[in-house]
Amino acid sequence: MIVPLAHVLVLAAILFGLGLVCTLVWRSNVIMLLIGIEIMLNAAMLVFVGGSNHWGAADGQVFALVIMAMTSAEVSLALALVVYLHRRKNTVDVDEFRELRD
Amino acid sequence: MKTYLELIILLPLLGGIVNALLGGRLLPRRASEFLACAVIWGSFAATVAAALAYKAQTSVEIATWLSDFDFKAPLTLYLDPLSLSLCLMITFVCALIHTYAVGYMKEDPSYVRFFALLNLFVAAMLLLVLAENLPLLYLGWEGVGFCSYALIGFWYTDPKNATAGRKAFIVTRIGDTGLGIAVVWLFELLGTESIPHLNQMGHLLPTGIVTALGLLLLLAAMGKSAQVPLMVWLPDAMAGPTPVSAQIHAATMVTAGVYLLMRMFPLIGTSPTVVAAIAITGAVTAFYGASCAVVQRDLKRILAYSTISQIGYMMMGVGAGAITASTFHLLVHAFFKALLFLGAGCVITAMHHEQDIFRMGGLRRTLPGTFWPFLAGALCLAGVPLTGGFFSKDGILGAVWLKGGMLYGGLYVAGLITALITAFYTFRMVLIVFGGEIPLNPPFIKGEVKTLPRIMEWPLIPLALLGLFGGLLNLPEYLGNGFLHSFLAQPGGNEQALPHTTELLLQGVAAVVAVTGIVAAWLRYGGERRVKSLAKEQQPASGIAAFLLEGWRLDALYDLLIVRPYTRLSSFLWQKLDEGVVDDSLDRTAALFGRCGRWIGSRGQGRVSLSLLGMAVGAALTLFWLAWVVL
Fold it and tell me: I want to staple B301 with a disulfide (CB 3.0 to 4.6 A). Which of B12, B296, B461, B482 is the partner?
């Protein structure tokens, strides 16, 4: 393994920051928000795998697999929600859905 | 022997289960009825076979049942003279009643439920009688209680019948509590549940504990056998179909309490307090039942009160230590009381379901097939000399006389007075129902008495013969030794016999009393005076008659003392405590949290992106703080 842990962590931090910015900025589309979340999750997964490699323990890789399974479930559910939201208000703008306030 | 004993119980159980599962849709009506009767007759045949093969007391273990460390209650049946004679009586009487019920329930659509429950009842009753240990006996005890409840409320669409069933169930439950405590306590004290073992270990216990146990068992017997003060359920239990009244509430189940006391007598009989309490309960109940029966106008209620009274005699016999005399009366009473109930069922069917005796009359000519057996039963109940009822009742009174002393002397006098009233009310009933002419204002047109199916009249005949000649089972000693007496005699038992002259004298007194009662009834209701007496009694009852008509107003008393305070307490706990305090405080707490949530919500903007930004900023701040602390 030539890639040192520090490089992996820097890459993961950049990815996480990109995902976060995507989530915060692109508010006119719920789907972009979901993609941002996916990127952040992948960044976390990268940290797990890198750590697992660095310390020679398999736990991190197992955890990465678990996160994959969880995200696939989450995405399928979230996309169904998006379809439902679109059907209700004919838009996918995040700020249109503010009924929780009252 | 093992096969016979298994068959005795399993046949009725099988009949009940098959009828319950397959009856109605898969079995035609005839097959259902035939099966229900055949299994009981089969059980009777097995009992006869067991009686012929009987040599000595045997207990047969069929299977294991309850077992936990030291506690063992296997499915063990115990056959001794007492349980054998009771089994013979139960299977025979129940078989006749089942046969009769085929005729009685001819037009009822729910015959499947009826016969299944009736069979199940017989199985439970036989289990109760044959059980070798107390938990098994308790199983049978509750089994008969359940069947009794379900059959009293058989026509449950009428709320009155359903209430009568519930009343019977709840009142007997009070007694069952006593039995339950006694069963557990006996195991804790002696480490076994086997009845024969318990009976041999009585001397290990101090008298005080034996007394307490005896009183608990007496409480159980009071509930099941309708003794004062728990007898209020039996008159209402007449709401069930008449075969049920004959089988459960006259011949078999109500004598279970007496049987329990007889079974456990070697254990509890050593306490003089218990014995006296049993005797006093019996005498009071005998008098109570007889006094109430005098003024009733419902045919079945008269018989119900007379059952209460006759079981009182049996209890009195147990209290005098005369197990044989008590058993003898139990058997003979089962024959003649089943006969009277079945006869009453014939009368009621013939009168188109009319039960008021004041609307009957002259049936001796229109229903001769019912009249003659009914008269035989009435003679037995009244204790006319040379009938079975005379010898059995006299056996008990003789035993009470033999005990002597103030207490038992008083009880003897009470028994004699009761016998006088018994003879009077019995023949009041017979003379009003069968004597005179059919009244002019009947609910049906004169002469239109319904014809009865043959199957309802022939079971009366063997019962009448058994009632009349039941005395032969246990003749007094001066006429040769009694069969039951030598059969039931426990090894080492100490039942003394009266001197012959005393016994003859006592029987003479009893005979005079019985005849006096009948003559008094004749003077009031016979011949010309009938119309006048009836007109007087048709008026709404007042004073002491009303008091007796309502069973000494005990229902009202219990309502005032127990039911109403209980209802009030329940409604207080429900409306004030549960709904007012517990539910209300929870509701208010929940409402408070809801208001807080709404207040916080109204402050925010409700925009998802803003929340996300807030979260990100918060997370960043936390990270910075952590970094600052660590570095």
Answer: B296
